[in-house]
Amino acid sequence: xxxxxxxxxxxxxxxxxxxxxxxxxxxxxxxxxxxxxxxxxxxxxxxxxxxxxxxxxxxxxxxxxxxxxxxxxxxxxxxxxxxxxxxxxxxxxxxxxxxxxxxxxxxxxxxxxxxxxxxxxxxxxxxxxxxxxxxxxxxxxxxxxxxxxxxxxxxxxxxxxxxxxxxxxxxxxxxxxxxxxxxxxxxxxxxxxxxxxxxxxxxxxxxxxxxxxxxxxxxxxxxxxxxxxxxxxxxxxxxxxxxxxxxxxxxxxxxxxxxxxxxxxxxxxxxxxxxxxxx
Length: 279
Known about the structure:
With 279 residues, the chain is of the alpha/beta class. The protein has 13 helices and six strands.
């Protein structure tokens, strides 16, 4: 079963539809039977086409169903059965990993989570830094401090945002130092929140050496999903941790800078500042 053929694409699409339509997660053997290949072949071809394994794809669907159920229904028990969890124990064991918080807190839109934030000025413009109790959740760059704050409020609509905290100055200073001199790096605790695929992409970005670049196709190959270049580009565009997760090091195959969520000129300057590290 050649992963480069339209026939393979049709089989992967068939498996995706089965996973989308199934309340209970089919076994890999059942999915392989549907695709007409061995479980090993399906695992490889599915990952090549989608960037994730069938099990990871099913987990993402379950998380989507869980979020939808929590939004639509007042009772958590209804939501977890609708999402395909067979028991409350299994649900409560997996829910924090799927949602990033407890079901009741997620149902309330993240209400009760406290994020500390501050806005500082750098030679690349304004930077907003926000942290949870685990680590930095957002580093946003831009020209308008008010727009950065609005972006943070949209990302964490029900969290309590605590600004102008004197005890947070050291963390902000670390981030400003990273922006001003990305070549030196920074040992920041990060609270990286994203889908399984996004997190794999962002982890691969952190492995690009300073002063070097990689193409979207390179990153897709590194995470074992060589046909997922466009999905890699979307994950880069969704990165909420500018510089700390160095999406500025990703370029087109021909070396062109392409887009950058924080502006192409900032990307060009960050790469210039890192250039001595490759000497």
